[in-house]
Amino acid sequence: MAEVHETIREIKSKFRLFMNGKISQSMREKGIDYKLNFGIEYPRIKEIAAGYECNHELAQALWKENIRECKIMAGLLQPVDSFYREIAEIWIEDMHYPELAEYTVMNLFQRLPYASEVVFPWMADDRKYFQLCGYLLMTRLLMKGWVLNERSEAEFLDQAFTELEGESEMQRVAATAVCKFALQSKKNARTVLRLLGNLQKSSKLGVKSVAEEIKNDIEYGL
């Protein structure tokens, strides 16, 4: 454990070298309020992380630090084989900002062997960051070529279109996931375009607008 503490101290000293006060201040003004935020851009965090081996104890200790860059790096250094679902869900409970959810899904969650098992329960969860991680994970899995069976497809479209129609906080991420699904095949595109027809007639401007965006993205992408 002493070695882990020493490594974290070394990592923090590297963060200080690249601290960007303007970005840090800008984030605070937008409500991103960690105990410490060095304001370092993601490519630099990734570059620093590349100097270390993936290590469970180190990643877990980094996550426990209430420091933006430490939490982002935790997702880069956590081995998948020791990252059980229970730990993943503890991490999600500790998320407070969309940026961290996006990086953690991209760097870690999409590589988990059980990703396809948790994606639907997370999307259906009432808790904001479980839902957010669920939709972000679905998008990543679809981009990797995951093909939904008939039952899963129906469940996904039902959940996603509920978010689109409700103008919820998840509307934007649900729209992205729907778009990735549609772009997998012409059959998927036809299914989504048919469902979008109802949204385009909505009296809610926000719903109509997002439906048009998805339609345009599909037609441009095919």
Q: Could you name the key traits of this structure?
A:
222 residues, mainly alpha, 13 helices
Q: Quick recap of the structure?
A:
The chain has helices at 2-17, 21-29, 42-49, 56-64, 68-77, 85-93, 98-107, 115-124, 128-143, 150-166, 171-182, 186-199, 205-221. With 222 residues, the protein is mainly α. Helix 4 (56-64) runs antiparallel to helix 5 (68-77).
Model description:
The protein is mostly helical and 222 residues long. The chain has a domain at 1-78. The protein contains 13 helices and no strands. It has helices spanning 2-17, 21-29, 42-49, 56-64, 68-77, 85-93, 98-107, 115-124, 128-143, 150-166, 171-182, 186-199, 205-221. The mean pLDDT is 96.
Secondary structure layout plus pairing:
Elements: H1 2-17, H2 21-29, H3 42-49, H4 56-64, H5 68-77, H6 85-93, H7 98-107, H8 115-124, H9 128-143, H10 150-166, H11 171-182, H12 186-199, H13 205-221
Helix pairs in contact: 1-4, 3-5, 4-5, 5-7, 7-9, 8-9, 9-11, 10-11, 11-12, 11-13, 12-13
What share of the residues lie within helices?
over 70%
Supply the helix-strand structural class: mainly alpha
| Shape assignment | elongated
- Number of strand elements: 0
* Residues in β-strands, percent: under 5%
Average per-residue pLDDT, rounded, comes to 96
Helix segment count? 13
Give the SSE order as H and E letters. HHHHHHHHHHHHH
N- to C-terminal distance: 52 Å
